[in-house]
Fold:
Amino acid sequence: MPELRKDPVVGRWVIISTERSRRPTSFIPAAKGTPAGFCPFCPGNEDKTPPAVFTSRPNRAVAGAPDWTVRVVPNKFPALQIEGGLDRRGEGLYDRMNGVGAHEVIIEGPDHAPELADLPAEHIAQVLQAYRERILDLSKDTRLRYVLIFKNHGQQAGATLEHTHSQLIATPIIPRVLQEELEGARRYYELKERCVFCDIVHQETADNNGRRVVAMNDRFVALEPFAPRFPFETWILPLRHDASYQETADPSESLALAVLLRDTLQRLNRALDRPPYNFVLHTAPVGDSDLEYYHWHLEIMPHLTRVAGFEMGSGFHINPTPPEDAAQYLREIAAEGPADPGR
Structure:
C-alpha cells in the first residue's frame, strides 16, 4: 500500500509508492533512440491494460478501424491506490496516512506515432473532454481533495512510453504547489477584490504591443508569464473568470481550447525542434468550483535547461530567455505554417 508522509519542517507531503518500483524500467536509464517495442496502448492490446474507466467512440464506425478514439485506464503501476481508508496517524512528530487516491492514464488516440500536437483539433477536444469527465467522476469521492492532470512528453520529461498519453493523479490533500498558488491568489483578492489571473489576462491582452501574448482566440489566450521558471514556459488561460476547469469546459469550449493548445504546441515544435515538455492543468480543488480569487489554467514547460543544485537547493530558477523574446519568436514562427508531423 502506498503511503503519504509529511515533512515536519516545511509541511511538504511525499508519496512513498512501492508499486512504482515494480515497473520494468525503474531506475534503469533508457538509451536514447531505442526503437519502440510492444506498446500496451495500441489497438488490439486493450487486454494488456486495466479495464477502461472512460472511452470516447468515433462518430461512425469504419471497417478495420479501432472502436475507440480516447481511452482512460487505471495506471498499472499506480503512485496511489483507490482502495482503502486514509487512516491518518502520527508517529511521534511525524504524520502519515495511507496512499489513497487515483492514478489513471489518458490514452490520447489509437495511432502510435502522432504526437498530441499532430492530432486534429476535434480529436484534441475529445481528450480535453475526457479530462473533464474523469475529474467530475473522481470529485464524487469524499476522500479526495484534488485531481491533477499532467502530461510528460518525451523521455527527458519523464515519459516511459512513446504512445501519446497524459495522466491524472487524484490526492487526498491539495498539492503544495497548488496550495501556494491558491494562497497567493487569495491574498491578492483580499487586497484588491479582483482575481489576479483575470488582471494578468486583462493587462497582457490590453498591452498594445502584446509583448508576452503568443496567440489567442475569442475564449482563450496563450502567453509567456511575466516571471517564467523555464525558457518558453507558456500558459493558456480562459479570457473570462472560471475557477474550475471541470465545471465549465463544455464541448464548444473544449474545441476552442483544443484549437489554441494545438496551435501553441505546434509553434513550440517548430521553434524548438519538437522539444520534450510537461504540461499541467491547475484548477480549483474538489468542492471549491466557485472561488472568486482563482482562475484555472494550463502550464506548458519545455525541457530546454536542466534543474540543478542551485535550483533544487534555493527554490530559485535561472531562465536565460526573457518571456518577451520567447513570445515574439513564437508569434513570428506561425507565419511558416504548422509544424511538420513527420519524423
